[in-house]
Design brief:
It is a single chain. The protein is α+β, with helices and mostly antiparallel strands. The chain has a single domain, classed as Gcn5-related N-acetyltransferase (GNAT) (Aminopeptidase, 3-Layer(aba) Sandwich). Helices cover about 30% and strands about 30% of the residues.
Length: about 180
């Protein structure tokens, strides 16, 4: 499955995305703000991630897509949504693609698909409390902060607290 807004393309991952995934996941901010990223992040970690994305697509529980430039097909990041009545969504952006609106456009595009096509009634995302860039992305995409959660999920810095954001079905921007 592919989605586009004309400026951005969400497409299935390919084997040639491995190099870009490794570069992005070796970035200190990516590793800091996404739990369970191996350090150092190696090529086999990216290959394992690609295998997982394909497995999720096959079983229908989750859709993980590469965020790509529509002209060059360059990997700009990743976004995935867990499909359920109450779904979750997450993303990371390659350091070279940050501060260009990529994350906001991708989040709007996949969120819209999730609520309009996949039947997700409520969509949530979490951010590390210090990840202000991701919090701004969530808000620009129509999510609102509804609280904080203490989790067993640990970030690299040892913290286990996340800020919780939510997008209700009625808040999603229409495609028309």
């Amino acid at each position: 499955m592919e989605l586009t807004d004309g400026t951005l393309r969400l497409r299935p991952f390919r084997d040639d995305d491995v190099r870009g995934i490794v570069e992005a996941c070796r970035d200190p901010d990516t590793a800091r703000f996404i739990p369970h990223i191996p350090i150092p992040y190696e090529e086999q970690d990216a290959e394992r991630y690609l295998g997982l994305t394909r497995e999720w697509t096959r079983d229908g529980s989750r859709l993980a897509l590469a965020i790509a430039d529509p002209q060059t097909d360059e990997l700009l990041g990743a976004i995935d949504v867990r499909v359920a009545d109450e779904g979750t969504i997450g993303y990371w952006i390659h350091p070279d693609a940050r501060n260009r609106g990529v994350a906001t456009r991708a989040l709007k595009l996949l969120s819209r698909w999730a609520v309009e096509e996949a039947g997700v009634k409520r969509l949530q995302l979490t951010t590390h409390p210090e990840n202000q860039a991701s919090q701004r992305v969530a808000e620009k995409a129509g999510f609102h902060q509804i609280g904080a959660l203490e989790r067993q999920l640990r970030f690299q810095d040892g913290s286990d607290r996340v800020l919780l954001f939510e997008l209700d079905r009625n808040d999603a921007e229409p495609t028309g």
